[in-house]
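Worked example 2:
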Amino acid sequence: ERVNGRLERKEHNIVTAWCNRHQIPCVHSATHRRPTNNIGLPDFIILYANHALIGEMKIGRRKLSEGQERMGAELRSTGTDVQIWHSGVEAIKAINEWVQEIDSMRT
Protein backbone atom coordinates (compact mmCIF):
# COMPACT_ATOMS: atom_id res chain seq x y z
CA GLU A 1 0.00 0.00 0.00
CA ARG A 2 2.76 2.44 0.94
CA VAL A 3 4.74 1.62 -2.21
CA ASN A 4 1.61 2.17 -4.36
CA GLY A 5 1.01 5.46 -2.53
CA ARG A 6 4.50 6.70 -3.35
CA LEU A 7 4.18 5.49 -6.93
CA GLU A 8 0.78 7.15 -7.29
CA ARG A 9 2.21 10.45 -5.98
CA LYS A 10 5.00 10.25 -8.58
CA GLU A 11 2.46 9.63 -11.35
CA HIS A 12 0.35 12.57 -10.10
CA ASN A 13 3.44 14.78 -10.25
CA ILE A 14 4.08 13.74 -13.87
CA VAL A 15 0.54 14.80 -14.83
CA THR A 16 0.57 18.12 -12.97
CA ALA A 17 4.00 19.00 -14.41
CA TRP A 18 2.76 18.27 -17.94
CA CYS A 19 -0.37 20.37 -17.42
CA ASN A 20 1.70 23.24 -16.03
CA ARG A 21 4.16 23.02 -18.95
CA HIS A 22 1.25 23.21 -21.43
CA GLN A 23 -0.55 25.93 -19.45
CA ILE A 24 -3.61 23.76 -18.92
CA PRO A 25 -5.29 24.51 -15.58
CA CYS A 26 -5.33 21.46 -13.34
CA VAL A 27 -6.92 21.16 -9.90
CA HIS A 28 -5.23 18.30 -8.10
CA SER A 29 -5.93 16.49 -4.83
CA ALA A 30 -2.96 15.93 -2.52
CA THR A 31 -1.77 12.33 -2.25
CA HIS A 32 0.25 12.62 0.97
CA ARG A 33 -2.76 12.77 3.29
CA ARG A 34 -6.39 11.77 3.47
CA PRO A 35 -8.52 14.20 1.42
CA THR A 36 -10.67 16.72 3.24
CA ASN A 37 -12.84 17.55 0.23
CA ASN A 38 -16.08 15.78 -0.75
CA ILE A 39 -15.98 12.00 -0.45
CA GLY A 40 -15.26 10.46 -3.83
CA LEU A 41 -14.03 13.65 -5.49
CA PRO A 42 -11.57 12.56 -8.21
CA ASP A 43 -7.84 13.31 -8.14
CA PHE A 44 -7.81 15.71 -11.09
CA ILE A 45 -10.04 18.37 -12.58
CA ILE A 46 -8.56 19.51 -15.88
CA LEU A 47 -9.98 22.68 -17.46
CA TYR A 48 -9.64 23.71 -21.07
CA ALA A 49 -11.70 26.03 -23.29
CA ASN A 50 -14.83 25.91 -21.09
CA HIS A 51 -14.64 22.10 -20.78
CA ALA A 52 -13.76 19.91 -17.80
CA LEU A 53 -12.10 16.52 -17.73
CA ILE A 54 -12.23 14.62 -14.46
CA GLY A 55 -9.49 12.06 -13.84
CA GLU A 56 -8.85 9.48 -11.16
CA MET A 57 -5.43 7.81 -10.86
CA LYS A 58 -5.43 4.17 -9.77
CA ILE A 59 -2.08 2.38 -9.61
CA GLY A 60 -1.63 -1.36 -9.43
CA ARG A 61 -4.62 -3.29 -8.12
CA ARG A 62 -6.27 -0.33 -6.47
CA LYS A 63 -9.99 0.00 -7.20
CA LEU A 64 -12.43 2.89 -7.00
CA SER A 65 -14.05 3.32 -3.61
CA GLU A 66 -17.82 3.27 -3.30
CA GLY A 67 -17.75 7.06 -2.90
CA GLN A 68 -15.64 7.43 -6.05
CA GLU A 69 -18.01 5.19 -8.00
CA ARG A 70 -20.98 7.28 -6.83
CA MET A 71 -19.27 10.61 -7.58
CA GLY A 72 -18.17 9.40 -11.03
CA ALA A 73 -21.73 8.38 -11.89
CA GLU A 74 -23.03 11.73 -10.64
CA LEU A 75 -20.51 13.66 -12.74
CA ARG A 76 -21.14 11.53 -15.84
CA SER A 77 -24.88 12.21 -15.50
CA THR A 78 -24.09 15.90 -16.12
CA GLY A 79 -22.24 15.07 -19.33
CA THR A 80 -18.82 15.54 -17.73
CA ASP A 81 -15.99 13.41 -19.10
CA VAL A 82 -14.72 11.16 -16.27
CA GLN A 83 -11.71 8.91 -16.83
CA ILE A 84 -9.61 6.46 -14.82
CA TRP A 85 -5.87 6.44 -15.50
CA HIS A 86 -3.29 3.85 -14.44
CA SER A 87 -0.15 5.91 -15.09
CA GLY A 88 1.00 9.43 -15.74
CA VAL A 89 1.77 8.54 -19.34
CA GLU A 90 -1.75 7.18 -19.85
CA ALA A 91 -3.22 10.33 -18.30
CA ILE A 92 -1.14 12.64 -20.47
CA LYS A 93 -2.12 10.74 -23.61
CA ALA A 94 -5.81 10.96 -22.63
CA ILE A 95 -5.60 14.67 -21.75
CA ASN A 96 -3.77 15.46 -24.97
CA GLU A 97 -6.39 13.60 -27.05
CA TRP A 98 -9.16 15.39 -25.13
CA VAL A 99 -7.56 18.80 -25.83
CA GLN A 100 -7.13 17.96 -29.54
CA GLU A 101 -10.78 16.89 -29.75
CA ILE A 102 -11.89 20.19 -28.22
CA ASP A 103 -9.60 22.15 -30.54
CA SER A 104 -10.97 20.31 -33.59
CA MET A 105 -14.54 21.30 -32.59
CA ARG A 106 -13.48 24.94 -32.30
CA THR A 107 -12.09 25.25 -35.84
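The mean pLDDT is 87. The first strand starts at residue 26 and ends at 28.
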